[in-house]
Amino acid sequence: MESETNVLGGELSACSMGPTTGFMRDGYCYPLQRDPGRHEICAVMTDDFLQYSKAQGNDLVTPRPELDFPGLTPGDHWCVCVPRWIEAHEAGHAPPVVLDATSEDVLDDVSMETLREYAHDSGE
Fold it and tell me: What is the rounded distance in angstroms from the CA atom of residue 86 to the CA atom of residue 71?
């Protein structure tokens, strides 16, 4: 991965190595031309979001070994698609966002003010 910038203007941090996330499954949420879903927001999974996403036809809970997908549980960090996060936000189900692991390209679609409202405190 080449150097990428996060929404805070710093170097993009890894979102998750366990489970390994990102369109390229390298742990990072960054833009790629071949990623039409735009997996650029690093989010902390909540039961609410996982159930919402499943109801929208994107089951992130059920393991899919053939796709090297372990299934997600609340607390997992995962690169979510920008349109899905916006949709979840508008429906009142958006998960918290890890700002230092979220691509600056997201700012084309989501305001920094909105992202800060959902900022996850990484000092767990």
Answer: 22
